[in-house]
């Protein structure tokens, strides 16, 4: 007769959960006959004096022993149809008729057979072990920023078992596959050619009968400034002709196209129409159509493409036969120290000459002034005293007809922040007082000031005050805290421009424990970790010391150096493996960053031998309890004496 069972073991199961399932299994188990013991699956959980707990999975098959006296049972595992003997090691061992497995892993899953033979015959019992582990999902890469038209791939990495199904979701909706959006396998999502609508949040969901998990990744379409792919050339027309000007641009997001005539934005009229469309390859085609051209339509036309990350422009002249004219010119504001460029908005064709005048004097007067062939006046390094005033351009046609336009150039001085008072960085101790001083040494009034901290608006609050005068702004810290560290920017603005400078406020902070070490106990041969963490600025170094006794002193603390058994991690944790009796004692964690007194705390480490630990063990279910009533032998229950495996 063959008796079988199926058991599902969760790797993260706690002791209380384990015990409950034992009692449930025991209550459901019934004897077929008084002479026949229970067959199938059992297991035991152990708890010990140091508070740890471990579940040990046990197969038992106590067959009719009087019929098989003198013959020990042995165990086989079904490896894809082939039976192989179960080999004992530090994790798997045999205890009479029980097969014990410590720390169950996925590879332990499968069918097991207990076999007993004698001269009369053979008996087998088969049971199945199903191992599960919590599902965890990670989507890689977690963040992608790609250009339109390129390919994108996401991979869903699933840990845990079993995995029955995997599903992909974009922005909370199932991913719809197509020739462009593909699933080569359930774990891989591939997009052949990216479009702007592909940006968003992607999730991979993994499921089994009892568990589910999901991972998330983000896809962004790279922002690309506009560029001009194709644009209209210079044209010469007769009155009453028709013309169509075209600009083709690309960019991401899709650019907006604006049309200009002599730097003024154009609008639609009865004769002038504008429109655009987007091609399949994400190009924006913009058109300007003019019907029944007249002489006044002549001038410099431009198309400007812009999006959130930049702009690009193109311009060319549209010449219409007719007498020369100059459009009204608005007044111009120039910034001191920069280059000024003023175009003469003329029309008519053909044109013989274009001249510029300053206060009635023909330009250029000096090397800083230049007049281009297209009628553009440029003045380098503008100065208020030398360059402010009235300017005019005069256009003469081949027929001798002239036209003149006039503008007034005002020169404004932008603010300049004095570097002498505004240093690149300042270092202060926590609890002290300090000031950030922003003084504008040059610039036209009125001036406006505002402050930024780490790029965000900063206002007075608590122990921080901001005082602003006509030409300065001062931030006063009455009592500096660690939260005050950061990058502070002073921004000064007037009608001409803005100026800004940034300083780094560094706050020194004495060490403080974030994780205080505590007393610990470890079983001899096990691993123990002593946690210690501290924060401060500069970041404190953490050292461990151990109290060492000698004949000359009552005890001194000596540094604990890394060794094959002791390792100090960068986060401050001290890990001691294969603990020995000599490891017991007092340990000191020290945190120091050179500010104030060294921060320290002393804790004790107790090392228990294996015998002490095993006598305090609790065993909840047979065969452990039935066959080993003597607590002194509990160290041999569910593990060999020499295995040195912790309870």
UniProtKB/TrEMBL annotation:
Keywords: Cell adhesion, Disulfide bond, Immunoglobulin domain, Membrane, Repeat, Signal, Transmembrane, Transmembrane helix
Gene Ontology terms: biological process: cell adhesion
InterPro entries reported for this sequence: Ig-like_dom (IPR007110), Ig-like_dom_sf (IPR036179), Ig-like_fold (IPR013783), Ig_I-set (IPR013098), Ig_sub (IPR003599), Ig_sub2 (IPR003598), Neural/epithelial_adhesion (IPR051170)
Subcellular location(s) per record: Membrane
Membrane topology, from the record: Single-pass type I membrane protein
Domain Ig-like: 75-132, 134-220, 226-319, 323-410, 414-502, 511-604
Chief site of localization: membrane
UniProt xrefs under PROSITE patterns: IG_LIKE
GO cellular component: membrane
Pfam families: I-set, Ig_3
Entries under PANTHER family matching the protein: CTX-RELATED TYPE I TRANSMEMBRANE PROTEIN, DPR-INTERACTING PROTEIN ETA, ISOFORM B-RELATED
Name of the featured protein: Down syndrome cell adhesion molecule-like protein Dscam2
Organism: Caerostris darwini
Taxonomic classification: Eukaryota, Metazoa, Ecdysozoa, Arthropoda, Chelicerata
Gene: Dscam2
């Amino acid at each position: 007769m063959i008796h079988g069972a199926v058991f599902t073991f969760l790797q993260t199961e706690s002791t209380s959960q384990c015990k409950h399932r034992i009692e449930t299994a025991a209550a459901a188990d019934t004897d077929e006959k008084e002479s026949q013991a229970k067959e199938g699956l059992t297991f035991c959980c152990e708890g010990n004096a140091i508070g740890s707990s471990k579940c040990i999975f046990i197969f038992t098959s106590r067959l009719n022993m009087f019929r098989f006296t003198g013959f020990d049972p042995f165990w086989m595992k079904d490896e894809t149809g082939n039976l192989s003997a179960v080999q004992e090691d530090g994790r798997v061992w045999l205890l009479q008729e029980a097969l014990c497995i410590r720390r169950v892993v996925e590879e332990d899953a499968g069918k097991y057979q207990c076999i007993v033979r004698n001269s009369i015959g053979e008996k087998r019992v088969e049971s199945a072990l199903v191992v599960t582990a919590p599902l965890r999902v990670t989507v890689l890469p977690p963040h992608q920023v790609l250009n339109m038209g390129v390919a994108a791939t996401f991979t869903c990495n699933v840990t845990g078992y079993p995995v029955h199904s995997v599903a992909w979701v974009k922005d909370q909706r199932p991913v719809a596959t197509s020739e462009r959006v593909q699933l080569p396998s359930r774990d891989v999502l591939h997009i052949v050619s990216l479009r702007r609508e592909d940006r968003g949040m992607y999730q991979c969901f993994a499921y089994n009968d009892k568990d589910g998990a999901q991972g998330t990744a983000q896809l962004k379409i790279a922002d690309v400034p506009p560029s001009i792919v194709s644009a209209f050339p210079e044209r010469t027309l007769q009155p009453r002709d028709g013309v169509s000007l075209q600009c083709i641009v690309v960019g991401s997001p899709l650019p907006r196209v604006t049309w200009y005539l002599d730097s003024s934005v154009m609008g639609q009229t009865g004769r002038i129409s504008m429109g655009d469309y987007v091609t399949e390859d994400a190009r924006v085609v913009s058109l300007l159509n003019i019907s029944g051209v007249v002489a006044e339509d002549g001038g410099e036309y431009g198309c400007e493409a812009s999006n959130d990350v930049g702009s690009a422009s193109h311009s060319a002249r549209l010449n219409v036969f007719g007498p020369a004219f100059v459009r009204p010119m608005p007044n111009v504001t120039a910034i001191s120290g920069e280059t000024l460029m003023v175009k003469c908005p003329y029309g008519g064709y053909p044109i013989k000459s274009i001249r510029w005048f300053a206060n009635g004097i023909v330009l250029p007067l000096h090397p800083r002034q230049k007049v281009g062939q297209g009628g553009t006046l440029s003045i380098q390094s503008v100065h208020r005293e030398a360059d402010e005033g009235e300017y005019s351009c005069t256009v003469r046609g081949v027929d001798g007809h002239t036209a003149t336009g006039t503008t007034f150039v005002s020169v404004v001085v932008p603010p300049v922040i004095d570097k002498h008072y505004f240093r690149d960085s300042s270092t202060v101790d926590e609890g002290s007082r300090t000031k950030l001083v922003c003084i504008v040494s040059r610039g036209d009034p009125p001036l406006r000031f505002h402050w930024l901290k780490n790029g965000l608006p900063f206002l007075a609050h608590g122990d921080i005050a901001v005082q602003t005068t006509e030409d300065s702004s001062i931030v006063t810290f009455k009592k500096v805290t660690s939260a005050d560290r950061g990058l502070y920017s002073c921004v000064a603005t007037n009608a001409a421009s803005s100026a800004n400078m940034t300083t780094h406020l560094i706050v020194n902070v004495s060490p403080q424990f974030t994780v205080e070490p505590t007393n610990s106990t470890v079983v001899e041969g096990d691993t123990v970790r002593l946690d210690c963490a501290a924060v401060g600025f500069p970041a404190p170094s953490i050292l461990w010391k151990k109290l060492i006794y000698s004949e000359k002193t009552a005890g001194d603390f000596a540094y604990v150096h890394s060794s094959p058994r002791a390792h100090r991690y960068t986060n401050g944790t001290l890990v001691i493996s294969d603990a020995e009796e000599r490891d017991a004692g007092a340990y000191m964690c020290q945190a120091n960053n050179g500010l104030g007194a060294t921060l320290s705390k002393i804790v004790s480490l107790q090392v228990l031998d294996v015998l002490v630990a095993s006598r305090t063990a609790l065993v909840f279910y047979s065969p452990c309890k039935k066959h080993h009533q003597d607590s002194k032998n509990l160290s041999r229950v569910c593990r060999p004496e020499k295995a040195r495996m912790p309870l």
